[in-house]
Amino acid sequence: MPDPSTYRPATGTIPDAPGVYRFRDPTGRVIYVGKAKSLRSRLNSYFADPVNLHPRTQQMVTTAGSVDWITVGTEVEALQQEFTWIKQFDPRFNVKYRDDKSYPFLAVTLNEDYPRLQVMRGAKKKGVRYFGPYSHAWAIRETLDLLLRVFPARTCSAGVFKRSAQIGRPCLLGYIGKCSAPCVDRVSAEEHRGIVDDFCDFMSGRTDAFVKRYEREMMAASDALDFERAARLRDDLAALRKALEKQTVVLGDGTDADVVAFADDPLEAAVQVFHVRDGRVRGQRGWVVEKTEELTAGDLVHHFCTQVYGDEHGERDVPRELLVPELPPDADALADWLSEHRGSRVQLRVPQRGDKKALLETVGRNAKEALNRHKLKRSGDLTTRSKALEEIAEALGMETAPLRVECYDVSQIQGTDVVASMVVFEDGLPRKGEYRRFAVRGNPDGSGTDDLSALTEVLRRRFARYREQAAGSPPEETTPGAGELPGIDPTTGRPRRFAYPPQLVVVDGGEPQVNAAATVLAELGVTDVALCGLAKRLEEVWLPADDYPVILPRTSEALYLLQRMRDEAHRFAITYHRQKRSKRMTVSGLDDVPGLGEARRKALLRTFGSVKKLAAATPEEIASVPGIGRRTAEAVLTALNGGGTTAVPSGVTGGGTDRGTDTSSGD
Question: Cross-referenced SUPFAM superfamilies, in alphabetical order (predicted)?
Fold first, then answer.
């Protein structure tokens, strides 16, 4: 494996100027291309301590054997050269935007004498006008079927067109008025191209002009008593309006824009883009890409623009406006480069309010759903789940695959409302009926609780309960009777809480969390449960007492399964934390006053305005409120001024509960 220090350029030889650089492997093949405003700063960052690099970047610099570069005059030139090299060399470590499916387009073959309307997939061809993409091919055919009545252009293949011309008889579409039949010279090539040009104008967003034109012609035909033509135009107008109804208006100002949003984790990013033309969503696309280094949302915007709009046929796809969640560092240069491709000015904007911001949030939700679908699609495959469990067993040195895995996470804000979650995966699938959540009791001295002590407490409670279930009861109770099953409560027929031990415990965290968990298991004498931690920053797997983590391959099914467990535990913990926090923020000292119900509490607060003013009132003033007697007024003052019981926030258990709270769902 090459050592980056062996090919690091000599100090001072890298120019402090904008340029483009290439990393090559020992055979000379280009494996990564990048651009920089300052080549010196960017390249030096690759030769820093490898421990601080992104895992993918680590792999790249240790695979490479040399680096070279060229300087350019401006950032726009750097963008152009970067795009050229990426297309030329197809580097394996560059972010690649490959569609998660082959999206269909509505294509118009303008390079033919008699242009054809058809559904096309795959690479774009020169001389063909594309509209879309659409989510389904049937959506294109449905739109075409409506519009062919108004724009009767050719849709048949070259063979059908040639055969109809030979026999002098058009196909069925020609007879029913959905084709102008240029094959039998009903219209000339110029007239047919005019029909196609009108169709392209309509699909490009200039719809109002056609609707108004057909309305005028319909009224003129009606005034001239040509009712057959007026009826035909009426039906054509209805077809146009129906086609427009299929495309939802999302921006009332007629905006032409692409709305781009991202959802990412340390390894991958999902990208969604909505194509909005004349205020209507004309198409949608999505990608899932591997992250080659630590990328911000602005960096993802840069990669998206250069790859999606950069090819030789991409100039028709460049919108007037690009709505993004964050501007890249080279936003001005990127806008200039896109403007050159479009032929007119292109703006990159981050919407701050209104409909555009709401639409960007909608696209963002679609991106999150796409990333979740991508990460979870493996879970439905039994073979894939089995492979993941086997890979986990091999990586952790386990004798058999862990059929039951428990994952733990802690959630808190500065030591308040400390909670923890336990999620259970059996055979690679979540067992939500076994999920548990814990209210952490905290330190005996009343000080704040950190993540390590909270994790220690939760694991001690969980496995102490398991030890009690296994050996703490009298022998006559622990020995199952006739027809009884171990771990099953004979009175209810349900599994006892914490009755089954896991084969593997996963904690959210790195070396400190794993060692703390190992200490607890050792104290309790639990020796038959494997333990590991998944560190979030670099997705490293830590084992107890190991100085170095286990690095699983990025495409490993084991890593995907561990990530899913960690993310599920985090979701479940933070859901419980939010519930506790919201309950705590809505309680008051009036809640525990005997005989004071909700209606009378509201009456007191309406009268005095706040609990503070209520506490400063006299018993006579409180008793003057309708429904409040003298004894109740005295009880209220006693509770508010510290003379009685202190209210305990709802949902908080001061000492915790060993059994946790049983739940089978979360938001």
Answer: C-terminal UvrC-binding domain of UvrB, GIY-YIG endonuclease, RuvA domain 2-like
